[in-house]
Amino acid sequence: MKFGTKVIHAGVHPDPQTGSVMTPIYQTSTYVQKAPGVHQGYEYARTQNPTRDVLQANLAALENGKYGICYSSGLAAMDAVIRLLNPGDGVLSTNDLYGGSYRQIERVHKRYGIRSTYVDMQDLDQVRDNIDENTRLIWVETPTNPMLNIVDIEAVCQIGKEKGVLVCVDNTFASPFLQNPLDLGADIVLHSCTKYLGGHSDVVMGAVVTSDPALSEHFYFLQNAVGAVPGPQDCFLMLRGIKTLHLRVQRACENAAVIADFLKDHPKVNRVNYPGYSTHPNHEVAARQMRMFGAMVSFDLKGDDFEEAKGIMTATNYFLLAESLGGVESLIGHPASMTHGSIPKAERMKVGLTDSLIRLSVGVEDVNDLMDDLKNALG
Ligand SMILES: *Cc1c(COP(=O)(O)O)cnc(C)c1O
């Protein structure tokens, strides 16, 4: 089955009882038993839910994995991954990790004895040199937020295999339409389904996909034992959003390429970060591991004026000023004051996250309207 068919059909079957083409929303907390312990595979809805089962099968297929396991948010899915580690074990991560992921490692798991190291994973020597006898997990995010750096997934997985360390890739920014880390050697792929998979900014959800039976057991166990599960209505909305994933992401990527070109030539713009440029430091890697270059673009201004950047963000009409990404509508954001506000300026500047950096999540509107919107806002 090709990707555009999988999004609609993989794991999804008309309801045998009624013929309902759409997966029913099984809005129930429990299931009747014929005799104690005699049931149809469903006992209690934290443990199993038929709407969730269909979504999980669909997600597994999209990432070319065997098992999909959903959680109530992307960060709840991450928590399930980090719980593979024991006190004293270490996680080696990208140094420009999603802020919420960084916070979870540093302020939740650290208290339970998890060690953490952050490196620039574009430099494979840094990955190799920072694996020690405690390292159990390599946490990859690519493309990264908001600098759109690209990590070579296959090369990092190769290092993981050599050293016997698990690799988890946060594939949220790419979506399974653009990039499939399991095919490149990853053990686990993670999604904040809140973003491109849902695609309509109306659901918060997370998922992991793996082909390893032992890992899948761990993840199903935590779904039930910890209980961070999505509700049936949200699973239905996620299935509905996924049906157009390929159409949405393709159009958003096309729009982003046009907008990146427009920004590059704008007199007020200093630097544009976009993996689709042949001048992007890891363009070759992006071209190898991604089908298109994504729909996230960031740029900063000549003179790097904080107030000027803020002015632009309040002057757009279609680009809505909001956190998050991956919906059909375009969003604009200011990492220095929004998502990365808690990082000291000196630290931000080291990775190029300047005061005037503006991040765009390009949506699927008409690209001419989007360009006019930015043209007006840039003045
Ligand atoms: C949003 C996001 C998360 C967290 O997902 P939630 O669904 O908000 O919990 C994790 N990683 C990345 C890259 C994200 O963009």
Q: Any chance you could write out the topology, listing elements then pairs?
A:
Layout: H1 3-9, H2 50-62, E1 67-71, H3 74-82, E2 90-94, H4 99-109, E3 115-119, H5 124-129, E4 135-141, H6 153-163, E5 166-170, E6 188-192, E7 206-210, H7 213-226, H8 232-242, H9 245-264, E8 269-273, H10 283-289, E9 296-301, H11 306-315, E10 320-321, E11 331-333, H12 345-350, E12 358-361, H13 367-378
Parallel strand pairs: 2-3, 2-4, 4-5, 5-6, 10-11
Antiparallel strand pairs: 1-7, 6-7, 8-9, 9-12, 11-12
Helix pairs in contact: 2-8, 3-4, 11-13
What does this structure look like?
The chain is of the alpha/beta class and 379 residues long. It has two domains: 3-242, Aspartate Aminotransferase, domain 2 (3-Layer(aba) Sandwich), CATH 3.40.640.10; 245-378, Aspartate Aminotransferase, domain 1, CATH 3.90.1150.10. It contains 13 helices and twelve strands. β2 (90-94), α4 and β3 (115-119) form a beta-alpha-beta unit. α3 packs across α4 (99-109). It starts with a helix and ends with a helix. Bound molecules: pyridoxal-5'-phosphate (PLP). Pyridoxal-5'-phosphate binds at residues 73-75, 98, 100-101, 141, 145, 170, 172-173, 192, 194-195, 204, 206.
